[in-house]
Predict the 3D structure of the following.
Amino acid sequence: MVSTGKERYSFTKLSSFNNCKYGYKLTYIDHCKGIGNCFSSYGSHVHSIMERYAKGELNLWDLPSVYEWEFDSAVPESFPKSRFCKDMRKLYYEQGLTFLNNFSGYDEIDILGVEETFEYPIDDWIFTGVIDLIIRDKDGKLIVQDYKSKSAFKNKAEQAEYARQLYLYSLYVKEKYGKYPDLLRFVMFRKENIIDIPFNAAGADEAVGWAKETVKKIRECDDFSPSCEEFFAENLCNHREYCINRI
């Protein structure tokens, strides 16, 4: 049984500290609620539709229309201006709609878990997570799947950073199913691209080591100075409306 008195850390919480210590302090120490942003709302909208479909709450043929009906209320924020795109909101909207129009369902897939919440003890703290989808494909491969609104990973290094999340989720999968997943899968839905990463023990060990080291740094930290990049500070940070240390 997991102790309720232990500290809890999710992948988002750990990553938040590495991204901006001041943002971490505002969110997890000062408990400031903050505000959302267009990109997270957009991703949550598509996640919600895929979750409801996987749970049998939506029919496959209804996904595009539900996406359209709910889009403005689900994504109320304005998208930032960009010299590379005249209308980013329209672009994201159309990419999401195309993905759902082309999505063929899960007819040959055994769905084992949908938005599955878990807790897993590591040392004297608890790692928590919510797995988008746990599936077994027609070839019997066990797969941990995560939806991403990113168009692509910048490089192998960034992909490895994101893979830590699914490697950490794999600890729970091993505990529940008696084996590690065969594949860690990212569905980059805006570009309809699937990235499969074969599970390997070295990757899992690296992810656990990263998580442990991050928790150690959090506990020892006495300087929560801001450290995020300008685009994040201006458009993504939950505390961007009132952060007195905006870069």
